[in-house]
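Module 6 notes. Inverse folding takes a fixed backbone as the condition and produces residue identities as the prediction. Think of it as a translation problem where the source language is geometry and the target language is the twenty amino acids. Below is one complete input and output pair. Work through it position by position during the lab.
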């Protein structure tokens, strides 16, 4: 009889425990659902006030890292404080704002996608959490998984124009955003002002319009237009690239390392190089076609030839740095600086390559001498080392120069590795 009572009590206890666990699980699920609904409602309310929501560390963890989540968040990590000296962060923010506004006021708007911003000065812990050391960075946080490598936008390759951001978001979220840029009347005002000035000038010179038939003026204008178009100014207008780029080593890059991109200053450099080449061609043509002092014509021809050869070789070297594999190089030949090792008395060499790069060939750090703090670069690659001690360490790790023309350098570096 006691056994039956104990059995009944045990079974009853199991039923009670089952109902308690089930009730707790149901309450937990309802609580999660309530929290999720509250988070979505809060995000929606904040989006109604501003298209881009500003997050600090706590809000980022509450709305982006918290689970469950049935919405995507696109976050721009930036540093727009004046002391951070991030020149492109403001431009990137303006483009990001255009995309957020285009989505917010479109028929595609829903509470499945939100735009947010984390400034380094407001959420440094977020940057540490995600191991970010550059800005700006655009990241997509999907609803049911961790961000992949493709969820970070490659702004070095595609830029950060609003159209590029919208295209990248379409690939990650299947939400196609049609970008609507606010009207910019400054261009229209400038055009009207220009036409007014030209009309006023023509009116003042209405009795003497012979300059309109001047071939030199029209020729200079046509050549200048060609310079602007060939240099990539139209690409700059469409893509909105940065003026220059700050490298990871702290230096400044004026030339983009890929044929798929460029910087604004790079276009100005190309304009100057092309103009110098054309000037040299004009000097040689004028020296050959005009009659006059033979000595003066010879000087003009030599100056023109030097301009063409020098600046054409420079523009070819820029082309090679962007499109690797072409057998172009600068006209300047190699030169060497040698000295004796303080440790082994063996010869050490700093070799100046044809493209103006330096390579250090030595075994011991103490042999660097006055070149200890000199920025060095391995030729035909995009590996920069500053100061020279970084290159010294890389030699001991056995870094290989991937260029068939650098056999002696490759052998020396490999020998140092042994």
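Target side of the pair, the amino acids:
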């Amino acid at each position: 009889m006691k056994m039956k009572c104990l059995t009944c009590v045990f079974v009853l206890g199991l039923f009670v425990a089952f109902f308690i666990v089930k009730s707790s699980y149901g309450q937990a699920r309802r609580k999660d659902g309530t929290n999720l609904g509250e988070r979505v409602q809060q995000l929606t309310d904040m989006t109604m006030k501003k298209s881009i929501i500003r997050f600090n560390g706590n809000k980022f963890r509450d709305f982006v890292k918290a689970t469950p989540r049935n919405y995507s968040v696109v976050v721009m990590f930036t540093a727009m404080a004046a002391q951070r000296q991030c020149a492109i962060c403001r431009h990137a923010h303006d483009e990001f704002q255009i995309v957020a506004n285009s989505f917010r006021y479109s028929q595609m708007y829903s509470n499945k996608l939100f735009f947010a911003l984390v400034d380094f000065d407001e959420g440094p812990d977020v940057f540490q959490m995600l191991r970010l050391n550059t800005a700006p960075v655009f990241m997509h946080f999907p609803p049911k998984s961790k961000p992949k490598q493709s969820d970070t936008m490659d702004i070095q390759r595609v830029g950060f124009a609003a159209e590029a951001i919208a295209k990248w978001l379409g690939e990650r979220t299947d939400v196609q955003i049609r970008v609507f840029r606010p009207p910019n009347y400054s261009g229209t005002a400038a055009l009207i002002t220009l036409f007014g000035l030209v009309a006023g000038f023509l009116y003042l010179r209405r009795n003497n319009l012979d300059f309109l038939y001047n071939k030199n003026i029209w020729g200079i204008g046509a050549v200048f237009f060609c310079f602007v178009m060939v240099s990539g100014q139209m690409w700059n207008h469409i893509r909105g690239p940065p003026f220059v780029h700050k490298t990871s080593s702290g230096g400044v890059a004026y030339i983009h390392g890929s044929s798929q991109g460029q910087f604004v200053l790079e276009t100005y450099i190309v304009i100057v190089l092309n103009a110098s080449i054309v000037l040299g061609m004009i000097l040689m043509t004028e020296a050959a076609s005009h009659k006059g002092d033979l000595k003066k014509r010879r000087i003009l021809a030599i100056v023109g030839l030097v301009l063409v050869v020098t600046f054409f070789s420079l523009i070819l070297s820029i082309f090679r740095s962007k499109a690797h594999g072409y057998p172009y190089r600068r006209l300047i030949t190699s030169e060497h600086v040698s000295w004796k090792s303080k440790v082994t008395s063996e010869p050490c060499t700093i070799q100046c390559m044809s493209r103006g790069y330096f390579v250090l060939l030595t075994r011991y750090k103490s042999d660097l001498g006055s070149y200890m703090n000199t920025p060095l670069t391995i030729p035909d690659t995009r590996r920069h080392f500053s100061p020279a001690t970084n290159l010294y360490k890389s030699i001991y790790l056995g870094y290989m120069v991937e260029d068939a023309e650098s056999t002696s350098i490759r052998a020396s570096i490999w020998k140092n590795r042994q």
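Reference fact for the lab report: The chain has three domains: 32-173, 211-322, 335-417.
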